[in-house]
From TrEMBL:
Organism phylogeny: Bacteria, Bacillati, Actinomycetota, Actinomycetes, Micrococcales
Source organism per UniProt: Sinomonas terrae
Record-annotated HTH cro/C1-type domain positions: 47-81
InterPro entries given in the database record: Cro/C1-type_HTH, Lambda_DNA-bd_dom_sf
Gene3D superfamilies: lambda repressor-like DNA-binding domains
UniProt superkingdom: Bacteria
Name this polypeptide is given: Helix-turn-helix transcriptional regulator
Amino acid sequence: MENERVRGNPAGITNMHVATNIRAARQSIGMDLRTMSVKLTEVGRKISPSGISKIENGDRRVDVDDLTAIAYLLRTTPAALLTPPSDGVEVTGVSSRFLPEEIQAWVAGRVKLTPDDLLRYWKEERFNASSYVKRFEDALAQYDQGQLGLTPREVYEERLATQRARLELATGRLVQLDPLAIPNLD
């Protein structure tokens, strides 16, 4: 039996997120591959235009030094380049049991994917949504009393509905994470 030597791990889904995000960021500022290559060389990260194309197609990996230089040149952040699409929850090496929002917040450095920190995150999100619900209910009450503002009533009604849905999501997620958390919220 012959032993095959395997070098490194194959590129994963996170590599594809990075590839897609780099291309989108580059195109959004109107930078072509040659210009990006020249600018990368100027900052000490020599990558040919074909190398950048391979990165954007997912055929070449990006090391962390390249990632930071690319993020800087593209006027974004390394976290933004690592972030999966808003509906994506899959990233390399991370359990798929997390919500897309939790993955997005984790990549952005706003939450750790631990039970305690997820509870903290969702309690904060629930508090914020609850505060906005109160604010928009108060604004609508002012409309009912004839105190019209510059913002149309429909805008406040839409914002109220959005924040009520957010409050419901946060409450539901808290119950999933810790069924005993809800009595301690109010």
